[in-house]
Amino acid sequence: MTTKPSSRLRLVALGLAIVLTIALVRLSGVGRYLEGDVLPSTMRAAGPLGVVVFVVAFTVGVLAYLPGALFVAAGVLAYGPIGGYAVNLLGGVTATCASFAVARAIGGQPIGDVERPFVRRMLARIDKRPIFWLAALRLVTFISPPLNTALALSRIRFREFAIGSAIGLVVPMAVATLAFDGLVRHPAFAGALRWLLG
Q1: What is the extent of the structural domain holding 12?
Q2: How big is the CA angle at 105 (ends 95 and 123), to the nearest 5 degrees?
Q3: Integer distance in angstroms from the first to the last C-alpha of the chain?
Q4: Which of 36, 100, 122, 153 has a Cα-to-Cα distance from 42 of 20 to 30 A?
């Protein structure tokens, strides 16, 4: 991969931004809001603004490379399976798009200039049908902050990323929401879920 000095500098800046965000979130004590029922309780207490609280928390979490499953569980605990699915899908799409936008703004698009034949062939396939491939990748990788970052560094356009992510998250988000709802409702698994979250 031949990258220009400015591209290398942008990649270093992106790497530093990711590390600093992760460190800031973990060291600031924000994680205590993800323990047990704290985030779901905060969402319910905020009324209609609870959705905004959730989407912001989900977005910050994805930017800090926290597992998306934490937020899916919080959505289910706060709003049940149907409301939880709606806020989870909204939060997931918003968080992945924000992650993409931040990575693109800092890192640019250096992957689009890669000269290795294997990588060029892969990127050419994605370039031909970006929404299809992104939806397919989402089925397998779910929220995946590393995927958001990698695709931000490619030539894929934001619009294609957003549409592909929205389509691709429909099924895995439904599966994850139903799985967490089942865990919450089943007494044998409820304790395990609470232990996982807190």
Answers
A1: 5-197
A2: 85
A3: 43
A4: 100
- Axis-axis angle for helices 68-107, 187-197 (nearest 10): 40
Q: Tell me the whole-structure pTM to 2 decimals.
A: 0.79
The per-residue DSSP string of 120-138 comes to: HHHHHHHHHSHHHHHHHHH
Enter the tokens of residue 80.
């049940």
Domain count, the chain: 1
What is each CA distance from 166 to 47, 55, 162, in whole angstroms? 25, 15, 6
- Residue 35 is classified by DSSP as S
Residues 12-57 pLDDT 10s: 776 677 677 767 767 777 666 666 678 888 899 999 999 999 999 9
**Tokens matching residue 104:** 């693109």
Contact 71, 59 (CB under 8 A): no
**Cβ distance 59 to 92 under 8 Å?**
no
Q: Which residues contact 35 (CB under 8 A, 6 or more apart)?
A: 197, 198
